[in-house]
Amino acid sequence: MEPMANREIQATWDYHNGTKHPHGNLMDPRHSFDPSSQPLLYKIYSDLEPIPLRLEASPSVVPALSAISMEVIPSASDGTLDLTTLSSILY
Question: In terms of CB atoms within 10 Å, which end of the chain has fewer, N or C?
Answer without folding.
Answer: N
